[in-house]
């Protein structure tokens, strides 16, 4: 997230409108019980049960420079499936203070609730007021982080905000996915904002949420 946000901010000041980091990890029953117990002190906890699982949600009540932290714990009723812990850290804008507070939150949470096997997904949305020409921005990414474009998908659905999806790879970031026998760890969605201007939604190693 830090590399991504600082790269976009260096391209154009105040270009970051909002950002989000998701940390996921599957755990066995013994471990999930310990994590759930620790999470009870992190914030307000709510739970609900359906026929397949027990789901808990925890919202961190601490306010840190407008950064929001939430946790989700999903415990399947069937013992053949592992439980999953999900943490989402999100905020608006990006500056040095935000970066410092984000690093502190991530370090504390990953050290307490997660291990090195967890997966981290980062997502950033540029401001609709930012003036970003897509091809020029992609060239900038190539020059700064070694971005290599692997694939471009044009969205032809008339009512969709999405205009195109661009997939690529940078050797600077460790996490990656294999797509058509190519390594991918950057996805860029070009979308149309409500003011008809272009916004970019950038994710690594891939976008996992609706945009």
Automatic annotation (TrEMBL):
Top-rank taxon, per record: Bacteria
InterPro entries named in the record: DUF1779, YwmB-like_sf
Protein name according to UniProt: YwmB family TATA-box binding protein
Record organism: Tigheibacillus jepli
